[in-house]
Design a protein that fits this description.
about 280 residues; single chain; alpha+beta; about 35% strand; about 20% helix; nine-stranded antiparallel beta sheet
Length: about 280
């Protein structure tokens, strides 16, 4: 090996050694593990209670499904409830004991919202001046966390209602529309009375749309709704689920008088849900 090659080899070894040192970072301590604000497993949470200026809101998980229990009993919006239980596993950006602290400085002398997950209470205080963060208190510890859920906690309770008109697993037996009745005849949907021309596929599609329909938004509805009605007869339930067609334009609005809720849907869904489409020319009844 001549001198030039020997020099190149030495330089290559030096560069490789420097790269190895940079990668190993000798003397540097490993990154500390993130501290969660609670020790709760979100999947194990069965009860949510939220105290806020807009009023008490409570939800419980039964048989794997969230139910809103206060201020109104109704199936809960799973996406919203999952977001709330995720608070249990938020990383604390900073934490310190509350002993000796002036809680008013952090807006925690009178919390803006109090979230209870199972038996763990999280008080929400003021927003930090910078970086979209908020102070919370869990037990005797003050935490600083990303301000991700506070505005959901203080939102209107109707935002926690499921957007679906029927829960998963619900079985429809009979659908009474303003101008048509559909009956589930051993899995085949049949209109009563039968029109001169109709399609079994169209009847089945209409029933399936009711089975899976979701609203864009659910709002509280006060007062007596008036209009034509839809009655959904469900397997195992003595009384039908009543929906009043409060509006078709600019949105289809279906009101559940028993819950005091209005489900807002796209206007085009009125025809899809309320009318049995005519058969195509090449279809046989």
């Amino acid at each position: 090996m001549n001198k030039r090659n020997l020099l190149n080899l030495v330089l290559l070894l030096v560069v490789a050694g420097l790269g190895l040192l940079a990668w190993l970072e000798p003397g540097r301590s490993p990154e500390p593990q993130a501290v969660k604000i609670t020790g709760l497993d979100p999947a194990a949470i069965e009860h949510i209670r939220i105290e806020r200026p807009a009023g008490l809101l409570e939800m419980v998980r039964r048989d794997g499904r969230w139910q809103l229990t206060a201020p109104q009993a109704a199936p809960a919006n799973t996406v919203r409830t999952d977001a709330i239980v995720s608070v249990a596993a938020i990383d604390s950006l900073n934490q310190q004991p509350i002993t000796g602290l002036d809680l008013a400085t952090y807006g925690l002398d009178e919390p803006k919202a109090r979230l209870q997950l199972n038996d763990v209470t999280i008080d929400f205080g003021a927003a930090a001046p910078l970086d979209n963060r908020r102070y919370v208190r869990v037990g005797d510890t003050l935490h600083l966390i990303p301000d991700l859920r506070y505005y959901q906690l203080i939102g209107h309770w109707s935002g926690y209602v499921s957007l679906r008109l029927l829960e998963d697993g619900t079985q429809l037996e009979r659908i009474e529309l303003p101008q048509r009745v559909l009956v589930n005849d051993n899995g085949s949907w049949v209109p009563e009375p039968k029109p001169e021309q109709w399609s079994a596929d169209a009847a089945t599609a209409l029933a399936q749309r009711w089975q899976t329909v979701q609203a864009m938004e659910v709002r509280e509805y006060k007062g007596a709704a008036t209009g034509a009605e839809v009655r959904l007869h469900l397997r195992g339930q003595e009384r039908p689920l009543r929906l009043v067609i409060a509006a078709r334009e600019p949105e289809l609005v279906l009101v559940r008088p028993d819950l005091g809720l209005a489900y807002h849907l796209v206007a085009s869904q009125a025809q899809e849900l309320l009318e049995l489409s005519a058969p195509q020319q090449d279809q046989e009844p």
